[in-house]
Design goal:
The chain is an alpha/beta fold. The protein has 13 helices and 16 strands. It has three domains: 57 residues; 174 residues, Vaccinia Virus protein VP39 (Rossmann fold, 3-Layer(aba) Sandwich), CATH 3.40.50; 126 residues. Strands 3-2-1-4-5-7-6-8-9 form a nine-stranded mixed sheet. The protein has a seven-stranded mixed sheet with strand order 11-12-10-13-16-15-14. α1 crosses α4, α2 crosses α4 and α7 packs across α8. The longest helix is centred in the N-terminal third of the chain and has 16 residues.
């Protein structure tokens, strides 16, 4: 359902708060929705019951992104889906600092609140009056001094030290928008703002060729090895790429290209002792060769984002598997090898091959007590399979 402005105003009232408190103790599963609505309509209008149930369900869904605060904040479904991981919001706020920030297309205020919590003077702007009302409620309930106003960011922005710009990357039907100039508003909107620095939230799968002309630093951010976002730090500097890794423990790791890479050749070789898989932020930032150089590794193939080393790299930036054996990929030979080594369970990883695990595993006719990780990939243009220990390190 769509949350309306009148819904937000009602839910923020004393009567609406009592409704939300009551619903919070109910079974909110899909199978109980009809029963719960029927019960609520004895004491509330259909519109009030519907709005209360929707908000209660959104609060449950928001727990991963907003923690215990989700129990008191308001949300809309589409804005909640667009909200960043909480570790990214906190990290980004720390990078922005205690400056004057305009949050353009602020949505329900998730980033504005993070900026305000970090000491910034924040003004959030969005053309959606419902989202602005939600943002105001959320900032007020948390005791943070962020300001919010309805407005069209394409018509101009207030003075500030930096603009944070979070355009919509899905259309009205919920389909992903892949062209940055079809974002809503388009990326070129930033050319109309005179502010000295603009920070733009992009899709992590952004086509880098689409932003070549803008310059600035494109940062790919992963959380615990899961690629989450790309951010354009647009400040007049030349184009460059970087990777950032955030951990559950709150650690922040950053990586930019080594100055030694341009003068260093990364050799190809047959597999060595350890298969190394770089963090996806490194992959998207084009830093695989840089990582191979850093860890003393060799690439298997120019087009494959694996490298191998003699020693296991000790770094949060990579996952590693001990290579027990390898061979050119041949189903008959692989099946015989696994049978001879009593392998009855495999995990299949693949990169650079059309063979799928669902197709391969039944054809292996596994039998035995041993487990292995099979990695289907390429080595200098040849299809190979690596047989690895079944624990990544």
């Amino acid at each position: 359902m769509t949350i309306t402005l009148s819904d937000i105003q009602y839910l923020a009232s004393e009567n609406g708060a009592r409704l939300l408190t009551r619903i919070s103790t109910e079974d909110l599963s899909q199978s109980s929705t009809l029963r719960l609505l029927t019960t609520l309509r004895k004491d509330y209008s259909p519109e009030q019951a519907r709005a209360g149930l929707e908000m209660a369900q959104l609060r449950l869904k928001a727990a991963d992104k907003f923690g215990s605060n989700s129990r008191v904040l308001f949300f809309t479904r589409d804005a909640l889906e667009q909200a960043s991981d909480p570790r990214i919001r906190k990290y980004r706020a720390s990078q922005m600092g205690a400056r004057r920030i305009v949050d353009a297309c602020c949505g329900i205020g998730a980033d504005s609140i993070a900026f305000a919590a970090a000491g910034a003077d924040v003004t959030g702007i969005d053309q959606d009056a419902v989202r602005i009302e939600v943002a105001r409620h959320n900032a007020n309930i948390l005791g943070l001094p962020a300001r919010f106003q309805v407005g069209d960011v394409c018509a101009g922005l207030p003075d500030s030290d930096v603009v944070f710009f979070d355009p919509a990357r899905r259309d009205e039907q919920g389909r992903r928008i892949h062209n940055v100039e079809q974002y809503q508003p388009p990326l070129k909107t930033i050319n109309n703002w005179p502010h000295p620095s603009v920070v733009v939230k992009l899709s992590p799968g952004v086509d880098l060729s689409q932003i070549d002309s803008y310059g600035g630093r494109v940062e790919f951010i992963s959380v615990e090895g899961d690629l989450k976002e790309a951010v354009l730090w647009w400040d007049g500097s030349p184009k460059r790429l970087s990777a950032t890794l955030l951990t559950q423990a709150g650690d922040v790791f950053k990586w930019e290209a080594s100055t030694d890479l341009a003068s260093s050749e990364i050799a190809l070789s047959e597999p060595r002792a350890w298969l190394v898989e770089p963090d996806p932020a490194l992959l998207r930032a084009g830093l695989v060769k840089d990582a191979a150089l850093h860890f003393g590794g060799n690439l298997l193939d120019d087009l494959i984002a694996y490298f191998t080393t003699d020693q296991k790299p000790a770094s949060p930036w990579v996952r590693s598997w001990s290579i027990l054996d390898w061979m050119p990929f041949n189903l008959k030979h692989l099946r015989a090898y696994l049978r001879d080594h009593h392998v009855g369970n495999v995990t299949v990883k693949k990169r650079g091959t059309a063979v799928t695990p669902d197709t391969l595993i039944p054809q292996l006719k596994l039998k035995g007590d041993e487990s292995r990780v099979l990695v289907l990939t390429r080595c200098q243009g040849r299809q190979i399979v690596l047989i690895c220990a079944d624990v990544s390190l």
